């Protein structure tokens, strides 16, 4: 059978011919390359370069690591409180959940312990306990990150679990290894403010 007789696969202006090569030309009234690439990248965690090369990038976690639910709360703290997490793979984004007794928080921040600085801030003013939020900063396997919540300097209600000696809580994609408070971690303090970590909310 000649190449002309061999069917090719075509979708929205992209085709795989009989030689197995991917063609990126000819939109033919379909979505342009940029919007098509964005859709593929969003759903698959990959990067498509300008010349059509597909590069494997950071992926979304497949699982969630949890610590026990809050059994107490404290009204009055105004500093950032949360958990130290350590990813077991590189990820381009991950989610976390506001713990069940925590309320009045408006901001979630990600602290990179390897750089000793906050690297992302997320507005969570419209969320409440049990709701998930997402960080979209690349995180690196084996690096400690603080997931901290606060009310931008005002006081809030902090939920926590009394079993301070229970660290770490381990999982396939993330380990929860300590408490994080204003960029300082402690394994002798109670898990607080944040619960599930991984693909929550994604």
TrEMBL record:
Biased composition (Low complexity): 45-60
Region (Disordered): 1-84, 180-202
Biased composition (Polar residues): 180-190
Identification of the protein by name: Uncharacterized protein
């Amino acid at each position: 059978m000649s190449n002309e007789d061999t069917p090719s696969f075509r979708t929205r202006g992209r085709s795989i011919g009989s030689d197995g090569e991917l063609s990126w030309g000819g939109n033919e009234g379909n979505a342009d390359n940029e919007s098509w690439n964005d859709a593929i990248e969003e759903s698959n965690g990959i990067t498509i370069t300008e010349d059509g090369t597909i590069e494997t990038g950071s992926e979304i976690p497949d699982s969630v690591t949890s610590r026990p639910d809050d059994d107490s709360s404290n009204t009055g703290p105004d500093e950032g409180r949360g958990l130290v997490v350590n990813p077991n793979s590189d990820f381009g984004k991950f989610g976390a959940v506001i713990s069940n007794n925590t309320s009045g928080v408006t901001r979630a921040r990600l602290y990179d312990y390897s750089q000793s600085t906050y690297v992302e801030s997320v507005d969570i003013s419209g969320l409440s306990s049990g709701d998930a939020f997402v960080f979209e900063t690349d995180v690196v396997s084996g690096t400690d990150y603080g997931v901290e919540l606060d009310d931008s300097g005002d006081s809030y209600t902090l939920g926590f679990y009394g079993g301070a000696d229970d660290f770490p809580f381990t999982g396939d994609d993330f380990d929860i290894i300590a408490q994080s408070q204003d960029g300082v971690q402690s394994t002798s303090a109670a898990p607080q403010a944040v619960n599930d970590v991984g693909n929550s909310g994604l």
